[in-house]
Amino acid sequence: MLRRQLFNKVSARTMITSHCVMIKEHGQPKDVLFTHEYEIDDDNLKEDSVLVKTLSSPINPSDINQIEGVYPSQPPKTQDLGTSFPTFVCGNEGLFEVVKVGSGVKDFQAGDWAVPLRVNMGTWRTYGEFSKEKLFKIPNPQQSKDQGKPPLNVVQASTLLVNPLSAYLMLNNFMKLEKNDWFIQNGGNSAVGKYATQIGKIMGVNSISVIRDRPNIDEVKQDLKGLGATQVITEEENNDREYSKQVKNWIKESGGNLKLGLNCVGGKSSTGVARKLQNDGLMLTYGGMSFQPVILPTSIHLFKNITSAGFWSTTIVEKDPSIKKKVLDQLVNWYQSGELKEAPAKENLFEAGDLCDMYKQGIIDAKSGKQLVTFK
Ligand SMILES: NC(=O)c1ccc[n+]([C@@H]2O[C@H](COP(=O)([O-])OP(=O)(O)OC[C@H]3O[C@@H](n4cnc5c(N)ncnc54)[C@H](OP(=O)(O)O)[C@@H]3O)[C@@H](O)[C@H]2O)c1
Question: What is the helix (H) or strand (E) element at residue 298, kind and residue range?
Answer without folding.
Answer: helix 298-304
